[in-house]
């Protein structure tokens, strides 16, 4: 009878783009955005946004990237244009995924998560 008080979720780890629906909103769990997708968007004027800390950014970043640390995500309107596509990245993809969810909640429409900077291979 104790099972009636619990909700059990099963998450398939191999499902790209899996979205978890919660009382607090929808959160994308896994990324299906590819490096080729990023290259195409960048060729069309997308903004490449590095959500690592300022110190990490100063040590090196992808070409033409804008630094918007995850800790400062609520100031996004001062730094990025919400009318252009946004491509987010960090080291592992955890911060970029979190940043994507915040930006979507803030009303940004075209937000993409590249994940790790290692996924970048545009020329």
From TrEMBL:
CDD domains, alphabetized: RHOD
Domain named Rhodanese: residues: 42-114
Transmembrane portions of the chain: none
Recorded superkingdom: Bacteria
Signal peptide: none
Protein name: Rhodanese family protein
Species assigned in the record: Vesicomyosocius okutanii subsp. Calyptogena okutanii (strain HA)
């Amino acid at each position: 009878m104790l099972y009636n008080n619990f909700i059990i979720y099963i998450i398939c780890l191999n499902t790209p783009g899996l979205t978890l629906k919660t009382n607090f909103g929808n959160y994308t769990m896994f990324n299906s955005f590819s490096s080729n997708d990023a290259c195409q968007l960048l060729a069309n004027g997308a903004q490449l946004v590095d959500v690592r800390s300022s110190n990490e950014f100063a040590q090196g970043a992808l070409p033409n990237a804008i630094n918007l640390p995850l800790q400062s995500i609520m100031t996004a309107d001062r730094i990025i244009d919400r009318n252009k596509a946004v491509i987010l990245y960090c080291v592992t993809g955890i911060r970029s995924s979190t940043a994507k969810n915040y930006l979507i909640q803030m009303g940004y429409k075209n937000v993409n998560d590249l994940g790790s900077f290692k996924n970048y291979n545009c020329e």
